[in-house]
Amino acid sequence: MGSLAPTWTPPQGFESRPVAVLGVGVLGRRIASCWAAAGYHVHIRDPDAKQRHECLQYVDENLHAYQELARQVPSGKTAAFEDLTVAVQEAWLVFECVPEMFQLKIDTFAELEEAAPDDFSDAAKKRILNTHYFMPPKIMATELMTDGFTSPELFPFLMERFKEAGLRPYVARRESTGFIFNRLWAAVKRELLTILAEDVADVPTLDAIYSDVILGGSYLPFRLMDLTGLDTIAFIEEHYIKERNLPRNHLDHLRQNYFAKGKLGNKSPSGGFYPPPTPSPNPSTAQPPHRLLALDLGLFSQTSFRNAGALLSLALPVSPSPTPTIHTLLSNLPAPDGIAICPRTSRVFWTTMGAAMGAPGGALHTATLPHLSDARALIGADDERVHTPKQVCVDSASRQVYFCDREGMGLLRCGYEGEGLEEVVRNGDWRVGGGDARRWCVGVAVARGLGRVFWSQKGPSKGGEGRIFCKRLDGGGAEAEEVLGGLPEPIDLEWVEKEGE
C-alpha cells in the first residue's frame, strides 16, 4: 500500500474512549449511530446548533435499527459539541464528514492536528486513511483505503471494529482515484449514458434489461464473464478499443494473466476468473435457475415492521451454479401476507394487511412479471370493504382472484383488474364482532375440478376451535359446509388438483 510506516499499535484503552464525528449532516449522523450501536460513546461536532440537535434526535429515534445489526452490547452515549478541541480530546477514532468544500476540509484537518490525542487513528500520516460509507442502515458496506502512508496493521484492526458496528468493510489493496465500488459504478453508468445518448435504447429498457440479466439473473459479474467466455469478452473489448480509441491495458492484463495460462472461462479445464464448474451428469438437460417469489413481513426490520415489508425474488440455481441470490422487487409494503401467480398471464397478486394494527387498511395488489414495474392496487387501502386481507389464490379459468379477510370475517373475490368485488362469505360486521377469532377467515384454495372454494377459520391460538369450510363456486346449493373442525389453528390452504401437480 505505498510507502507505509513499519509499526502501528492500537490506541490504548480504545474500548472506553469515544469515537468523534466531525460534521453531522445526512451521512455523519448515520456514522454516529453505527458506532453508538457498537457500544462506543460518540462525540459529534458541528458548528451549526440545528445540525447538532437534529443529529441527536436522529440517533435517539433510529438507534434500535442499528443495534439490530451491531454486536449485542449496551449502546454508547452520544454527546454534541460546538468546540472541535473538546469533541476530539479523548477520541481514539475520528471521522471527518464536513461539507465537500476543499478549504473547509483543509482547515478542519489543521485544527484536528493541533487538538487530537497522539495515538488516535487520524493524528499522523500512518494513522490516516480514507473511508467510504454508503447509506447505513440500508446499505452497511464500507470501503477502507490507504492514503499512501497508512500503516498496514491499521486495516485488520479497523475491520474488526467496523464489524462490531454491523458494517461490512472492504479494503482497497492500493491507493486509487476513487473507491472500489465508485470505479465499478462509474464504468456502468458511463456506458448506460452512452447507450442512451446514442439512442440505442431508452431509460425503461435499460433499467429493465439490467434488472432482468444482472439483478435477477443470479450471476455475479465475473461469473457472468466466465460463462460467456473470456475470449469472447476480449473480442468484444478489442472492437470497442478500436472504435473509440480507448486504452487497452485492461485487455492486455486479461491476455497475460488468463489467456496465457489457458484460462478462458467455464468452457476451459483451467476455468477463468473462477475454477471450472463441476460437470453435470447430463449437461444437455441443465435448467436455468428456478425463481421463487416470497413476501417478507419485515418483523426484524430496522424500522417499524408495519411499513417494512418486501416482495422478494429468490433465484434457486440448479447445481453447479453461482450462490443463490435474493433480489428485492418491491419494498416499503405495509405488512404483506398472501401471494399468488397466474402463469397464463404472468400476473402476480398479493395482499397487504395495512400499516395500522386492528383497523381497516388492507389492500389487494397486482403486477406483471418479471419486473413488476406496473405494480398497482386493485382494492385500495381506503376501501372499507376490506379490513385485513390474508391468503390469496387465483382461479385462472374464471380470471378471478379470491382472498380471505381475517378481522373482516369474510372471503371475497374480484376480477383480475379489481372489478366486480363481491362477498363469497361474510361472518359478521367487524365493527361489532371483529374480536371473535372463530369467524376469522384466513386461508383459501380453489378446487376447480370439484367446483368448490375452501377456506379456513382459524379460531383462538392453539384453541382447538379452528375449522375448514367449502362452498360451491357458482353460488348454488347449501351455503357453507364444514369439512373439518376441532383444529388447533388452521391458516393457509393449498388444493392439489392432480397427483404430482
TrEMBL record:
Entry keywords, A to Z: Oxidoreductase
InterPro entries referenced in this protein's UniProt entry, alphabetically: 3-OHacyl-CoA_DH_NAD-bd, 3HC_DH_C, 6-blade_b-propeller_TolB-like, 6-PGluconate_DH-like_C_sf, 6PGD_dom2, NAD(P)-bd_dom_sf
Span of domain 3-hydroxyacyl-CoA dehydrogenase NAD binding: 19-119
Gene3D superfamilies the UniProt entry points to: N-(1-d-carboxylethyl)-l-norvaline Dehydrogenase, domain 2, NAD(P)-binding Rossmann-like Domain, TolB, C-terminal domain
Region feature Disordered, mapped onto this chain: 269-288
Molecular function terms, GO-annotated: NAD+ binding; oxidoreductase activity, acting on the CH-OH group of donors, NAD or NADP as acceptor
GO BP: fatty acid metabolic process
3-hydroxyacyl-CoA dehydrogenase C-terminal domain sequence ranges: 178-271
PANTHER family: 3-HYDROXYACYL-COA DEHYDROGENASE FAMILY PROTEIN, DEHYDROGENASE, PUTATIVE (AFU_ORTHOLOGUE AFUA_5G10070)-RELATED
Protein name: 3-hydroxyacyl-nad binding protein
